[in-house]
Amino acid sequence: MKLTYPTTLVLHALAQGFRHGFDILDVTGLPSGTVYPILRRLEQEGLVSADWEDVAIARDEQRPPRRYYDVTPAGRLLLKTALARYEVPRSIAARGRRLRPARSS
Amino acid sequence: MSPLALRFALWVIRTIALVVPAARRIAWRNEWEAELNHHAASLRRRRHRSWSTDMDLISRALGSFPDAAWIRRQFTLDAEFVHDVAYTTRALAKSPAFTAITLLVFAVGIGAAIAIVSVADTLFMRPLPVTDPNRVMTIWQQNRASGAERLDVAPGNALDWLSRTHSFQALAIAEPFTFNLNVAGRDPDYLTSARVSEQFFSVLGISALHGRLFAAEEYRRGAPRVVILSHGLWSSRFGADQALIGTTVRLDAGDPYTVVGVMPTGLELRLFDDRARRAEIQIWMPKPGFDEVESGLRVYGAWNVLGRLRPGVSVAEAQADLDVISGQLAREYPKTNGSIAAQVIPLRTHLAGGLRDLLPFLLGAAAILLIVSGANVASLLLARGATRHREFAVRQALGASRLRLVRQMLVESLSLAIAGGTLGLLLARGLLDVLGRFRPLDIALIDRMPMDARSAVLACGVTAIAALLAGVMPAMQLSRPEAVTALREGRTGSPRAVGRVLVILEIAAALVLVVGAGLLVRSFMLIERVDPGFKRDHVSVLQVFASNRIDTPAKRIVFFEHVMERMRTLPGVVAAGGVTAMPFGEARVIARGLLEIPGQPPQGGDGFVHTTAVSGDFFKALDVPLVSGRLFEPSDSPASRQVVLVSRRAARQFWKGADPVGSRVRFQFSGQAFDAEVVGVVGDLRHEALDAPAAAEVFLPYAQSGFRALTFVVRTAPDAPTDLRTLKEQIWAIDPVQTIFSAATLEQLVAKTLSQRRFDLLVLTGFALITLLLAIAGVYGVISFSISQRVREFGIRAALGATHGDIVRLVLAEGVKLALYGIVLGISLALPATRLLKTLLFGVSATDPITFLSVSAGVVVVGAVACYIPARRAIKIGPAEALR
Questions:
Q1: Does the distance separating the beta carbons of B31 and A21 come in below 8 Å?
Q2: In chain A, which residues have pLDDT < 70?
Q3: What are the boundaries of each domain within chain B?
Q4: Closest CA to B428 of B397, B400, B449, B414
C-alpha cells in the first residue's frame, strides 16, 4: 500500500470519527473519484473495516442503509507513521471532536 | 438541491454500476445510492439549494467511475481495457476542441445520412396497408401535345381502359365526392369522400378493419345507401365506437347512410391529386354503375384509376399495353383523343409526391456527406495522432508493447465513434421529426417516419471504420522500430499526404452539392419573378361549391350575385368578382371546351381551350389587363345573346394576330354547343404553377354558363379591415349551411405551388452548406497541421529574411492549391451529377456556367479564408523557434 498524502488524509479523517464516504469527502475536500478507490484499497489491505449501518436507523431517515468504515489497529499503526511524514490540516481533528459517537450495530 | 439533480446523479450511478462485476454490483450501488440520498436529504434539511450544490452532487456521482473501474480491475481480467477507457477519457478531456469538433462531424454525417435514407425507405420500402403494394399501379391521363402529365382521368377513357387492357388482374376507378357537414356551433365543413367501382378494394387487396366491404349488389343502381368510414373519421367524429357499424349516420342534408365498415389506419392514397388540404379519403361509397353521359366524356375528368398488375407483368409491359389502347382510342375518337395517352405510375412512386424527383440527388448527397464526414474524422484523427508521436514514443520507451499502443488508439477511436454515433442518431431523429412537421404538401404519410435501422447501422459502421483506420494508423506507424527517432524529432511522413487527398475529395464533393444547390436557388429566383398575368397582393380567394339546395342555374346566379353584392359593400373592398376555375385555386376545376371559327378549318392544335366562366369584377379584382374590346357587363345575361372573351394566347392561336373582336365562334363544352360573339381580348392567366405557361383560354359570363362551382375573388385596399373571416360571414349570411371549400389569400395560394420547390431548395442547400463547412474544416485542419510540422522551416525562413507577406503567401498558396485541385475534380463530377436535377430547374441549364464559375470562385475564397488563421500563426514563428 503506497502511503500517499490523500491516503493519510482519509485515514486521519476516519480516525477522527468520520465514518461514511461522503462525510470524508466533505471534511477532506478530496474528490469522490480519489477517496473511494483509497477506501477500497485500505479495506483490501485490512487497514480499514467496513460494514452496513443498522436497517432501523436507515428506515427512520427513509433512505437505504449507509456503509460505514472504521480504522483497524493495523490502520492506526500505519496512520501514526503517516502523520510523522505528512502534516494534516487541524480542521479535520477540530470538526471530528464535535461529532457524536457513531450509532451503529 | 433540486430533485432533478438527484435523479440525474442516481441515473449516473445506475449506469456506471454496469462496470462493476455483477457479483458486487448490488452492494456497490446500494452504498453509492445511500450516500447520495443522505447527502441530498441533509442539503434539503439545511435548505441549501443552489446551482453549485447540484453540480457538486453530480460531480460526486461521476467520481464513482474510478471506484467502479478500480473494483473491476481487482476482480476481472479485462482490467487493461478499463484502464484504456479511463486513459481515453482523460486524453479526450484534455483537448476539448478536438473532441467537440470530431463528435460534431461524426454526428452531422451520420445524422443527415440516416435521415435521408429513412425518408427514401419510408417512401419506397415501408409496408403499406395494401397487399403486395409493388403490383398496385395508378393510371393517369397525359396530354402528349401540351406535355401535361398525371392528369385526372376522363370517364370515357377510363371505361375503355378498363374493358380493353389485359395487363391487370383488377382495375377500378374512384370518383371524388364531397359531403357537407353541419354541426351546430361550428362553421359548415365538408368531408372528402370517394365513390369507387366494384373492383376497387380487391385492387388494393385490403379488407375492412371492422365490419365489411361493400357487397356486389350494393354497387347496383337503387341499392340502399351504405358507406365505409376512414379510420381517422371514425376515431375523431365517432369516438372509435365499434357499435357504430350497422347503424345509420346522417350526412349532407340529413340523408341516412348505413355504416358497414371502417378502413384500416394509414390508408392515405392521395387520390384526386388536387391541392386540397386533406390527403385522406374520409368516406367511401360504392359507385352505382356508370352513366351514358360519362362514357362520352373524353377530354376532362376527375376520376382516378387504380390497377393491380397480373403476376409476371412489368410496369413497362402494362404501359405498352395501354399505349396500344390509347392509339386505338386516338383513331376512334380523333377529335378528343388525338394527343391523350395513359400513364402508369406505381403506387409507391405516386405516394412519394414531389420528393420523387429530388430523391436520387438527395441519396447521392447523403452518401457524399457521409463520405466527407468519414474523411474528415479520419484526417482529424490522423493529425491528432501525428502530434502525439512523442507521447507514444515515450510510452513505448517505458515499456508499452506495440499491441498496447494500438489497442489504446482503438479504444479512443471507438469511444469517439460511439459517442458521435449516439449524437448522430439523436440528430437523425430530430431531423425526421422536423421533416414530418414541415412536410411538403403532397407527400403521403411522411409525418409518421420511422428511423431506418439498416441505414443507421451502415452509417455508423462507415464512420466508425474510418475512425478506427485513421486512429490506429499513427500508432501502427510509430510502433515500427525506426519510429524511435520521433523521440528526437517529432516528424512524420504519410499522414500529411493522406490528409491532403482527403481534403481534395471533400472539396470536390462539396462543390458538387453547392453547384446543385446554386442551380436550384437560381431557378427559384427566376420562377418567383415570373408574371402569372395577375397581381397577387391583397386578394382574397374563397372557393365554393353551391350546396344541393341551390339546384338550378337561376338560383345559383342569384346566390352568387347576392354574396358578391354584400362583399362589395364591405369597407376597403376595391373589387369583387367570381370565377369557376381560379388560377392557383385549391380545387382544380379547369374545364376544357372546343372552339371553332365557322368557315375556317380547325385551328391551333386540337382546338381545345380552357373554358372559364367569370362574374362581377373578376378581371378588375385580379388586375388582368383588357387588350382590346370590352369586358363583360351586367347586361350579358342568360336572356341576351352569348358573348365570350378570349385570352391573348387564344387570339394568337386562333386568329393568327388578327383582332378577334366582333368575330363569331362556335363553342362546345360539357355536352352543349352554342354560337357566340367575341367581345374582347384579355391578358393571359397562368393557372397551374408559375413555371407552367398559360394555356389558350375562353371566358364566358357566369350567367350564361351553367357551372356549379364558383370562387369569390376580392381585392381590398392595402390597409382594409376586411379579412377572410368577414368575407366568409357574407356567404353564411345568405346561406348559413354553405360549405366553403377553401379560403386563402392569393399570395398563399401562389406560395403553396412553390412549397415543394422551397422544400427541395432548403434540403439541398442545407446539405451543401454542411458539406462545404466540413470541407473547409478539413482545409483548416490540414493547413494548421502542416504548419505545426513546419515550425522549423518557417523559423529558418524568418531568419533568412522572409517578410510576413511572404509567409502568408506561402501558406495561402498551399491551401488554394488544395482548393483548386478539389474544384477541378468537383467540376468534372458535377457536370454529370447536376443532370439529375434537370426536372427541378427552371430557366437555367444544368451546366449553367455562371453558377459553376461563381461557386468555384466562392470555394477558392472560403478556402483562402480557412488558411488565413493558420497563416497568422505562421507569421508569429520567429527565428528562435527554429533552434529549439
A1: yes
A2: 1, 96-105
A3: 3-76, 147-338, 355-528+753-883, 548-736
A4: B449
Run of H or E including B851: helix B849-875
Angle at B835 between CA B830 and CA B841, to 5 degrees: 110
pLDDT (tens digit, 9 = 90+) per residue, B82-133? Answer: 777 777 877 787 777 778 888 888 888 888 888 888 877 777 766 677 888 8
Cβ neighbors of B763 (< 8 A, separation 6 or more) are B358, B362
Secondary structure of B638-678 as H, E, C letters: CCCCCEEEEEHHHHHHHHCCCCCCCCEEEEEECCEEEEEEE
pLDDT digits (tens, 9 = 90+) for B150-205: 888 888 888 899 889 889 998 999 988 877 777 667 777 778 888 999 889 999 98
DSSP string, B771-786: HHHHHHHHHHHHHHHH
Q: Which residues pair with B539 in a beta bridge?
A: B715
Domains and CATH numbers, chain A: 5-97 (1.10.10.10)
pTM over 0.80: no
B813 vs B378: which has the higher pLDDT: B813
ipTM score for this prediction: 0.89
| Residues composing chain A | 105
Q: Which residues of A touch B61 (CB under 8 A)?
A: 32
What is the C-alpha separation between B665 and B678, in angstroms, rounded?
7
For CA atoms B300, B301, B306, B309, give the dihedral sign.
negative
- From chain B, the residues in CB contact with A43 under 8 A are none
Angle at B763 between CA B759 and CA B765, to 5 degrees: 115
pLDDT of residue B272 exceeding 80: no
The answer to whether the Cβ–Cβ distance between B63 and A64 falls below 8 Å is: no
Chain A contact for B31, CB < 8 A? yes
Distance of residue B818 Cα from the nearest chain A Cα, in angstroms:
47
Smallest Cα–Cα separation from B686: which of B753, B774, B758, B765? B753
Chain A contact present for B56, CB below 8 A:
no
Q: Which residues contact B630 (CB under 8 A, 6 or more apart)?
A: B679, B680
pLDDT band at B620 (very low <50, low <70, confident <90, very high): very high
Contact A37 B41 (CB under 8 A): no
Residue count of chain B: 884
Cα–Cα distance between B497 and B501 in angstroms, integer? 6
